[in-house]
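Late entry, evening session. Most of the bench is empty. Finally got around to the prediction I had been postponing all week. Sequence below, unchanged from the version circulated by S.P.
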Amino acid sequence: MLRLLIAAVVLTVAAPAAAQTRWPDEREAGPFRCHADFSLAGQEPLLDELALLQKDLTAILSARESREPVHLFLFQTRATYQAYLKQYFPKVPYRRALYMKARGPGMVFAWQGAEFDIDVRHESTHALLHAWLPSVPLWLDEGLAEYFEVPRDKRAAGNPHLETVRAQVAGGQLPPLADLEALTDLGDMGVSEYRDAWAWVHFLLHGPREVREEFIRYLGELETGGDPGPLSERLRRRLPDLDRQVAEHFR
């Protein structure tokens, strides 16, 4: 599915002053400070998931829990969402939902569209990843956000990408990870790239033990700010039959 999202916008302006004022409904969910222009009554399941998201990243990715809060700005309508962004971030192109980081904590913006929950989980994943890692390769940033955007009980086997990827792999069409690693501009990420990034993340997390071990080492090196080298090359050194293993994983 086409995702109109932005991975990360780094700004040189201060966070909006409205972050310091009282919104109609404000709540905390783990590291997230939620500010909504509508009542969040009924959104408790989503807020509960957000409260657990950082713990999930810690458990699944061996991530370090950041002490930095993330401000989550939620809007009832697209019009109020657009007006707010136009006032505070006039140079940022419109996206249905987005994550941005100014000089202070990260910020997530979303409005109550048809995929509100998905958008919030997706962008909140970006926020936590960038609070943890000094830099995140584009394919990995988006692949992990796609993985964690669905409800917790659907991550492993209930993502809408799964059936399409299975058909791709059966036809020998899943592109090599190296192709995704070459992408550096968000504009290069289309429907296929988001799906393929998700597929590689799924394999890294649920594939052979050696793959997961190499992935966790790779993340650890990213955390220190070093250059871990292409993950695709590291995986092939561990698993010379990587392509066969990927195909087997999605059968």
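Two things to note before I forget:
The longest strand covers residues 5-10.
The beta strands are 5-10, 25-29, 32-36, 70-75, 97-101, 106-111.
Will write this up properly tomorrow.
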